[in-house]
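Could someone model iron/sulfur cluster with this protein?
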Amino acid sequence: MTEQKKNITDLTLKELQQAMALLGEPSFRATQIHQWLFSHQAASFDAMTILSLALRKKLSETFSIHQLEQVDHQESFEETCESPTEKILLKLSDQNLVESVLIASENRMTACVSSQIGCPLQCPFCATGRMGFRRNLSAGEITGQIYALNQMLALREPGKTITNIVFMGMGEPLLNTDNVIEAIENLSTRNYNFCLSQKKITISTVGVIPEIQRLGQSGMKTKLAVSLHSADQQKRESIMPIAARQYPLKELGKSLCEYTSATGMPVTIVYLLLKGINDSLDDAKMLAKFAKTFLCKINLIDYNSIINIKFKPVYSTTRDMFQEYLMNSGLYVTVRKSYGATINAACGQLATAGIQNPQ
Ligand code: SF4
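Reply:
Sure, complex below.
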């Protein structure tokens, strides 16, 4: 069996420098290759015309450049939005599949990207969680999603590009932090053709405490969103058992206080409203008490139903009362519009298990 070549877009700049040393090349070649990969998004070593033929040959013998292949594309048209929400199914080099979503709104083109195939946290309301966990995505596979979406946009309308990224696709990004950070650094490298400010990138987590602490100390400028869904420990355990037990509310609150003090940046508390479960006035009171201890804003989300899952969305009147209570408590509260529900592209609906991932 032939050994699979390493995907070069998975390498950090430091690893590229080490690889060049092994090939007997000077260190600056690593910088040039990095530019070709992440600024010019070169699809082959032959495209790297600044390199000698001999080096291009050596590189292609050692590495591959794996670009993600689009295997499906669906659109969902919303009444309130001129452009459709799009769900794109991408194939990885090992034939596994991931889903990414493009959401157009006002002047933004937001890419919702995946960080894992499946998810080990298995929140019962989430389609990805019900897939089980296959593996982490590599840094190259994460950037590959953005490049695939950008390519699709540019072909359709030259100059059109992604303006924001949210790690809210399949998986828990802070259980794959090294690769997520590496991908973000490559996507936000200054002066590259595609360079996104880290402030336009949101990492959404269920609250992986040690990794929140790490992010807080990292100097990264990315935004942080935390899926809380209940400010009552017992209730949270019933909604998201694994995550809530591993990362208890009390410690989570403390880590968010430390994070906001260290970064000066607010955290977005994401609260999925589930009918009859976490939507009472008492729930709103507990949420207000929890959220007042650190710099944050609250984002309420309507649940998007998934077939065979018992959870149900709340009535809009319940959501309005919940929001009003929080706002009257002095909190900043928004209601997130949900896009893509009809194509299972909305929050919590992404799953490729039923499609065809290899076992
Ligand atoms: S909600 Fe997030 S953390 Fe929970 S199972 Fe789904 S992807 Fe994983």
